[in-house]
Amino acid sequence: MSARSILVVDDEANIRQLLTDYLHRDGFDVEEAVSGEQALDALARRVPDLIILDVRLPGIDGFETLRRIRKTSDVYVLMLTARSEESDTLIGLEVGADDYVSKPFSPREVVARVRTLLRRRGGIAPADDRREFVGLSLDTTRHEIFADGATVMLTALEFDLLDALTSAPGRVFTRRQLIERVWGWDFYGDERIVDVHIRKLRSAIFDAADDPRFIATVRGVGYKFIGVQQ
């Protein structure tokens, strides 16, 4: 079986080298890029299994690079953000990042986050491969979603989140339970990552937080799926 491929995008040579060394040591195939433009060129040639993308890049920054990536690909993206800039984290998640690590970071932590995300891909598909609700259809085998008859484009992680919620309609999931099911039990980032992805998921399936058809907030606890089954 071929090694999983990682694209590391950072304009600092020492950071690229550090991450490349640790990822190679863990058995990954690594390609490097020093700018957003180089990253997009690399993506056009070959889609990696995951991209490690720095926010602060020369030319087009990491946010704009990610926006362009999301127009054509649901590849997993782990963003590197400045610890002093909390807004970077929230913007990155809104734009389409799957996870983030703040600088300065431990390279072991980055590798652990990479492995956690990649475990989502290639997992066992649930036996219940098609779920039908009024206004929403989900096919877990083909990774297809239709809301009000329109095709919905989600990132792989957002799809996994919707998959988890629709697997047990009416059940209340805490943020920690959703993190363990979608990100993995060993994820130790901020639980607010769930809220950001729920917000994006609602927007994609034409749901409204103040008058939900599909995903309801249970204050102080988490979320539940309230769609009506057909």
UniProtKB/TrEMBL annotation:
<keyword id="KW-0902">Two-component regulatory system</keyword>
<keyword id="KW-0805">Transcription regulation</keyword>
<protein>
    <submittedName>
        <fullName>DNA-binding response OmpR family regulator</fullName>
    </submittedName>
</protein>
<dbReference type="Pfam" id="PF00072">
    <property type="entry name" value="Response_reg"/>
</dbReference>
<dbReference type="GO" id="GO:0032993">
    <property type="term" value="C:protein-DNA complex"/>
</dbReference>
<dbReference type="GO" id="GO:0005829">
    <property type="term" value="C:cytosol"/>
</dbReference>
<keyword id="KW-0804">Transcription</keyword>
<dbReference type="Pfam" id="PF00486">
    <property type="entry name" value="Trans_reg_C"/>
</dbReference>
<feature type="domain" description="OmpR/PhoB-type">
    <location>
        <begin position="128"/>
        <end position="227"/>
    </location>
</feature>
<dbReference type="GO" id="GO:0006355">
    <property type="term" value="P:regulation of DNA-templated transcription"/>
</dbReference>
<dbReference type="InterPro" id="IPR039420">
    <property type="entry name" value="WalR-like"/>
</dbReference>
<keyword id="KW-0238">DNA-binding</keyword>
<dbReference type="GO" id="GO:0000156">
    <property type="term" value="F:phosphorelay response regulator activity"/>
</dbReference>
<feature type="modified residue" description="4-aspartylphosphate">
    <location>
        <position position="54"/>
    </location>
</feature>
<dbReference type="InterPro" id="IPR001789">
    <property type="entry name" value="Sig_transdc_resp-reg_receiver"/>
</dbReference>
<feature type="domain" description="Response regulatory">
    <location>
        <begin position="5"/>
        <end position="118"/>
    </location>
</feature>
<dbReference type="InterPro" id="IPR001867">
    <property type="entry name" value="OmpR/PhoB-type_DNA-bd"/>
</dbReference>
<dbReference type="GO" id="GO:0000976">
    <property type="term" value="F:transcription cis-regulatory region binding"/>
</dbReference>
<dbReference type="InterPro" id="IPR036388">
    <property type="entry name" value="WH-like_DNA-bd_sf"/>
</dbReference>
<keyword id="KW-0597">Phosphoprotein</keyword>
<feature type="DNA-binding region" description="OmpR/PhoB-type">
    <location>
        <begin position="128"/>
        <end position="227"/>
    </location>
</feature>
<dbReference type="InterPro" id="IPR011006">
    <property type="entry name" value="CheY-like_superfamily"/>
</dbReference>
